[in-house]
Structure formats: C-alpha cells, structure tokens
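Thanks for the sequence, V.! I ran HAD family hydrolase right away. Repeating your input here for the record:
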Amino acid sequence: MTSETKQTEAGTDTETLRRRIDGVRVVLWDFDGPICRLFARHSAARIADDLVRWLEGRGLHELLGRPERESGDPQALLRAFDRARPGDDRVRELEELLTQEEIRATGSALPTPYTDPLIRTWTAVGARQAVATNNSPRAVTGYLAARGLLPCFAPHIYGRGRQVRHLKPDPHTLESALRATEVPPSAAVFIGDSAVDHEAARRAGVPFLGYARDEDTERELRNAGADAVVGSFAPLLTLLRQG
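Predicted structure:
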C-alpha cells in the first residue's frame, strides 16, 4: 500500500480524503463533535432531565412520548415539544433554557484533537470557515472566541433559532452559509459526526466528510452512506500542510 493510498484511522484512504477537500472554498462545520465535545463535563442527559422537569412543572410533559422523555437528548425533547405545540411561546422558552445550558457547557468543553490548528491552517490557505449546527449560535460564538478562533468564522455562524423545525437534517443552516458566502455547494465540504449531518449535507448538495471518534459513530456514518470518514483530523492537517 503506497503512502498515497494508506488508510486514515477510520478507514478512508488518503487519496479519497484529498479529493474531498481539493478546491474547497468554504468549510462548513458541525459544532458539537467535530469542533469540540460540548457536553464532555456538562451532562446532556442531566440537561434533558431538567427540561423534562420544567415541562412537568407546567403540566406539559405528557405532550412528549416516553422515548423522548427518557432519551437523555435535549435536542430530541425540543423537537418533540415543537411538533406538539408549534408556535407556542413555551417552545421559545424551552429553547432559551437549552441555550443557557449550552453556554454554560462551553466553559468545560473539550477541543477535538487537531481541530484548532486545522481551522487556522485551512483559513491560512484561503478557505473560508462557517458553522452549521443545531446548537445555539451564542454558545458557538462564545466557545470560538475563548479559543481565539472567532476571526476564522465570523460572521458565518448558523445555528438553532426560534424556528426549531429548521434543525438538521433540514439543510437550512448549510444553505444559509452557502448563500451568505456566495459559494456553490460543489465548492464546499460539510464536516459532521452523525447520520443527521450526512442527511443535511445530502439535501443541500454539499460533499460530506464524517468525523468519528469511536467505532459506533463510524458505523452510524457508514450506514447512512458516508463514503469519507476520519477518526482523527491529523491526516487532513497533514494534507493541507503539504499543499
């Protein structure tokens, strides 16, 4: 096996990876996962439990199915409540509670290995950076500012707003980034770590690069149809530095 076709940690060969990033003018990033582990020390399951208790206090928890109430996923709770009560002011209240928790979580979030230098290197060689996430843009902005990365992205941070129906797999955030940067989908790449991210990229027509920090995530991405997946950003950083 030559150096040009050696495998990355998650099984994608270097040449496939090179083709995926060749000519990219805008890099779209999911936030929680590819950029950092947002809930590394601030439990998402605990946040979900708090949101359920908030709904219980208002007699609204029965609007959610048992799977959503017990999922430990605050995003799933928010989606389910929005489906049950679209347009209800309390959807916005619930979203704001989640936003505050995400902002608090940024203080203990763990950077994904190699992401910081990868973002800076990609910016230095001329590619623009944007975030397309289901997290709050306020949380994203705070994290990036603390890491000194905000100049690489601003103002292109697209995240969860009041219209919860626009959460991925809806391609709304990706399409917003493409419109703002005036770049066609074929000249972008979206880096995500879930089947939902892959589906959003497919709908937006954007090439996808999966990040899998464990075997379960790689399996999920491969089963969703992702043909380029890395378990570390080190090979990607090496390719960019080689030019």
